[in-house]
Amino acid sequence: MTLAFVAVILLYLASSAGYLAFLFVQKKVLHRWSYAAMMAGFLFHTGLLGYQSISLGYFPIHNLHQTLLFSAWTLAGVYLFLKYKYHLKILGAYTAPLVTFIVIQAYFIPKVPVEQAAVFKSIWLIIHVVTIFIGEASLALACGTGILYLIQEHGIKSKTNRFFLKRLPSLQLLDSTGYAFIVIGFTMLTIGLISGFVYAQSVWGRFWSWNPKEIWSCITWLFYAALLHERLVAGWRGRRSAIMAIIGFAAILFTFLGVNLFLEGHHNAFTKW
Amino acid sequence: MPSQNGKGEQPMQPAAVSGMPDIVIIGANHRTAPVALRERLAFSDPEINTALEALKKTSAIHEAMIFSTCNRVEVLLATGNPSAAVEAVTSFICKEKSVSPSEIEGCTYTYSGEEAVRHVFRVAASLDSMMVGEPQILGQVKAAYKAAVMKKSTGVILNRLMHKAFSVAKLVRTETGIGGHAVSISYAAVELAKKIFDTLDDKTILLVGAGEMAELAVEHLMQNRCCGEIYVANRTLSAGMKLAGRFKGKAIRLEEIDEKLETADIIISSTGAPGFVITYDQVKPVMRKRKQRPLFFIDIAVPRDIDPAINKIPNIYVYDIDDLQGVINENIETRRQESIRAERIIDEAVLNFKNWLENLDVVPTIVALREKLQKIARSELSKTLASLKHLNDQDHLALERMLEAFINKILHDPTVYLKNPGVHRNRSAALHLARLLFKLDE
Fold first, then answer.
1. In chain B, which residue's Cα lies nearest the Cα of A173?
2. Can you tell me the mean pLDDT for B24-53?
3. Which residues of B115-141 are buried (b: 16+ CB within 10 A; e: fewer)?
4. Bigger pLDDT: A78 or A258?
């Protein structure tokens, strides 16, 4: 187990190093190897999660260690999948270190024993968790694309530092890819929230209970809804859209971790450590 | 960087005692000869063929190749007698091109040996070009080599030299960024446009002013598959129409610019107007109507046409001629640094080639052959002796002497042949084959 965990970390580390080298040297072969390392890390990671699920007898997302491990897995998976569609190679220089960081965090966080409650055995819960995590991974990528956009835009506007100018793709590509990530992320988030409400109804008998987690999830969702609306209606794109993607992801991080750690609510058990 | 010597200033190295062939290059390029002279010296393709025929007949010349472009004329030779070969080529060129030796005196260079090898590598890798890093040269060198191969005027040495030159050029191109950066205004503008817009193929271009520079930039954009609409706004409509006609665009009046700001993506301005032609207040309200689609202004006019304050508006990028020049200067600097790395790659390749060439001589080949046989004999002898314990030292000595004699007998005929392979022109080929057969180049 620990060995597989270390293998996952080492492969992600190799991928991160490769992607950062790719950022500087811009050799395609570096990207190929980094992508392969990440893919290998992802497969080990999948095996690890599968093994945990079987040996524990439940889907391992019940303490902070498990949720972090799962969120890193979805992030890597979503990146590996979306990279095929959007060809934004350089985004790996953001994703790989982020995934590595989360996995290393998970490694050092103690594995709090989990009480297996009957309320956790529901298909709605699985749908809720998986879609929310995929949505959040996609929005994390949107945030990364936004950062790249701001760097590239600054390079073009200021006309001084051309280090990134040669290395990053065009503004338009960054903008449209970021938009696509937000659309995917928002869709998944919506499905996740709906399934969450359905699940709440099935266990607690009510859709909505004014819990901080629920309130913050709603705020985040409304934020992205506003972003998409403004883009379609008023043509919010480019710089503003990039900044919004970054702020939106900060809101997600707060909803995911901040609410659980600082506020009281019914999700707190999942981030116990 | 090899020093350039005028022809005859440097005494040619005498041919090696063993008749080891030398590589010599005689040429004139954009640095040594004015264009007027280069024009007269240039060889057309059919001329190259007849010239190669003629050079092949010269006894001093073993192998020959002619490389002629608008920036250089070079004759590459493998010869057993460099001074005679250079003499022959010079007089041949003077006769063919009807120039007097005094005219080309001082305008040509002659390199031999290592210097010649380095020169060939540098030319192929585009380090000796007028525009360092320009990509066409390798194709031209390949074509020239192919012509020489068709005429069967190249042999072992030039074949190997040229193949090495091609691989070195490829290595330089892939390992260094020597050809990677724009070094002209219009190219730099296109490069920037590609960093703003993902694809240029559906972008609308608005030309303000019908200057020559603007025309060049549009040409570059079109080469990069930019095939959206083109509008030309000019003070005199007729001049605008003339330019628009060339690019299948439409001519508009200067007053119509406001309206076109809503649809255009790239605006290239090059008017001779004394003030700003497009102002901040004019552009600011347009972005809302454009739904914030990016807008790229290229201002190549002096004094400037586009208010630089426009650059402050989100999603609008304004580059004037100085900004573009800044991009170019940086790229030139990058190329210069990259060319240092390229020279290092070439130094290494020259050294490798030199080793090969030096070994392609009778004495080193025979020595290497003898060493190989001795090594085999010694190892087999020690294996045999290990199982023949009853033999004494004298017996050992006798066996060793026997093997030595055996090796001498084996080597006798090859040595005689390699020293004088009859038709002595084939010696390089014979040596090359011998080294291949016995795997001496390891």
1. B198
2. 90
3. bbbbbbbbbbbbbbbeebbeeebbebb
4. A78
- Length of chain A in residues, anyone? 273
Pairing state between β B22-29 and B109-112: antiparallel
Contact B196 A236 (CB under 8 A): no
Q: Which of A171, A176, A229, A240 to mutate to test the interface with B (most CBs of B within 10 A)?
A: A171
Q: Which of residues 247-266 of A touch B (CB under 8 A)?
A: none
Among A112, A134, A156, where does a domain finish? A112
User: What's the pLDDT tens digit per position in B167-185?
Assistant: 999 999 888 877 766 667 7
Whether residue B107 lies in the annotated active site: no
The answer to whether residue B195 neighbours chain A at the CB level (below 8 Å) is yes
**What's the pLDDT score for residue B209?**
86
Are A235 and A124 contained in the same domain?
yes
Q: Looking at the partner chain, which of A162, A169, A239 has a beta carbon nearest the beta carbon of B330?
A: A162
Residues B430, B374 share a domain: yes
How close, in Å, is residue A251 to chain B by CA atoms? 25
End-of-domain residue from the set A72, A95, A112: A112
A153 and A193 part of one domain:
yes
Domain housing B100: 22-175
Q: Which of A111-115, A158-162, B240-244 has the highest mean pLDDT?
A: B240-244
**A78 and A100 fall within a common domain:** yes
Residue B426 burial by CB count (10 A; 0-12/13-18/19+): exposed, middle or buried? middle
The total of other beta-carbon atoms located within 10 Å of residue A250's CB is 13
Structural domain of residue A225, as residue ranges?
A: 117-273
Residue of chain A nearest B318, judged by CA positions:
A157
Q: Is the same domain home to B263 and B303?
A: yes
Region of A42 on the Ramachandran plot (φ > 0 left; ψ -120 to 50 alpha; else beta): alpha
> In chain A, which residues have their Cβ closer than 8 Å to the Cβ of B196?
156, 170-172
Minimal-distance CA residue of chain A relative to B316: A157
My answer on whether B268 and B296 are in the same domain is yes
Confidence band (pLDDT; 50, 70, 90) for B2?
Answer: very low
Q: Is residue B4 part of a domain?
A: no
Other CB atoms within 10 Å distance of the CB of residue A17: 17
* Chain A residues touching residue B192 (CB < 8 angstroms): 156
Task: Say if the ipTM goes beyond 0.90.
Answer: no
* B290 interfaces chain A, CB cutoff of 8 Å: yes
Q: How many residues does this entry show for chain B? A: 442
